[in-house]
Amino acid sequence: MSSTLFELNQLRYFVTVAEELNFRRAARRLNMTQPPLSRHIGLLEHALGVRLFDRSSRSVRLTVAGERFLADAVDILKRAESATLFARQAERGEGGSVILGFVPSASIEIVPRIVTAMERRLPDMRLTLREMMTFEQIEALQAGSLDVGLARLPQRTSPVHLRRIFSEPFVLALPRSHLLAEKPALTIEDIDGEDYIGYSTDRGGFLYEVVSGSFNSVGVRPNIVYSVAQGHTVMSLVDAGLGLGLVPKSNSSICMANTVIRELPLPESFRSDLYLALGPKAENPLVARVVTVIAETLAQPDLA
Fold first, then answer.
1. Closest C-alpha among 193, 166, 173, 176 to residue 264
2. DSSP 8-state code for residue 175
3. What are the phi and psi torsion angles at 41 (to 5°)?
4. What is the pLDDT of residues 218-258, one digit of tens each?
5. Cα–Cα dist 92/85, whole Å
6. Of 25, 134, 146, 215, whose CA is between 20 and 30 Å from 283?
7. How far apart are CA 116 and CA 107, in angstroms?
8. Structural element, H or E, at residue 81
9. Which of 228, 230, 152 is nearest to 196 (CA)?
10. Mean pLDDT for all residues in the chain
11. What SS3 state is found at 4?
């Protein structure tokens, strides 16, 4: 027996006859004559080893086997149509699935904007989000379990391609009851000696290096009372009145009742940078489309 029992066209012919229960009308719908249609139905029945129709000079009706086969035939045709559509979408970079990793600090405002843009511009794509630290993203990209990453600059040389895609200033978060909250104009020197929520050297390594480096460059030494990994944790501790904190501007969109956000005149180098991390799947058409959407979304001026 042939490894291919039947052809898709034979399934289409069978479904049409089953819907019409009349070979002449079915042939007309299929833009063919009746004899070749009858021949294809016969070949299909021979391949399956069952009768699909009971025929008489007056009527055509499905057999029990035909009724059972009809549901599967319709399903197979729908799946074949979907497979064709998905393959064409994948070639155009429009359909399929993409796994996007992101550092937690991007979750407040950046990731929601990206997801909204993806749903609008790539509605047929299935997007999976994974909150991951930078080193975890690099490992996953190398292993092929991650398609695109939004990462910080790693402390060591990266084996994956990194491209700076977004840069934003830091702002000062301080308790509403703090004396500095009412000061007309603040500078980074005002932080000197104040209780301060800083970044840890491990999971908050990138932010720690940027902030501590800037403090050292101007001789500012705050009193670090707690060190944490993420900006949203800094915001929570500031809101509890435990100290001041510098956070990326996008983190300040978190609504905190007891927190005031103030902008500071800071050096241009004192910024929070986000990098697009790409591994072996970068050449995939869909991944390339996703990268374009991310880049265009983060280029909007109201984000920075």
1. 173
2. E
3. -65, -40
4. 899 999 999 998 888 999 999 999 999 999 998 888 878 99
5. 11
6. 134
7. 13
8. helix 64-92
9. 228
10. 89
11. coil
Q: Which residues contact 241 (CB under 8 A, 6 or more apart)?
A: 175, 177, 258
H or E element at residue 167: strand 161-175
Distances from the Cα of 167 to the Cαs of 104, 214, 269, in angstroms?
16, 16, 10
pTM of the model: 0.66
- C-alpha 253/C-alpha 241 separation (Å) is 18
Which domains, from first to last, does the chain contain? 8-91 (1.10.10.10), 96-109+126-164+278-303 (3.40.190.10), 165-272 (3.40.190.10)
Phi, psi of 191 (to 5 degrees): -80, -20
Please give the distance of CA 58 from its chain centroid, rounded to a whole number. 58
Instruction: Name residue 170's amino acid.
Output: F
CA trace torsion 241, 245, 248, 252 (10° rounding) = 20
b (16+ CB within 10 A) / e for 39-65: ebbeebbeebeeebbeeeeeebebeee
Q: Tell me which DSSP letter residue 302 carries.
A: G
| Token pair for 38 | 């009858």
12, 304, 22: which is closest to 166 by C-alpha? 304
Look at 89 and 9; give whichever has higher pLDDT: 9
CB atoms near residue 74 (< 10 Å): 15
- Scanning the structure block, which residue is given the tokens 């009527």? 59
Q: Which residue has the tokens 């794509």?
A: 125
Q: Which amino acid is at 275?
A: Y
Both tokens of residue 6?
A: 């039947």
Q: For residue 155, give the DSSP letter.
A: S
Looking from the CA of 6 toward its CB, the CA atoms found within 13 Å total 21
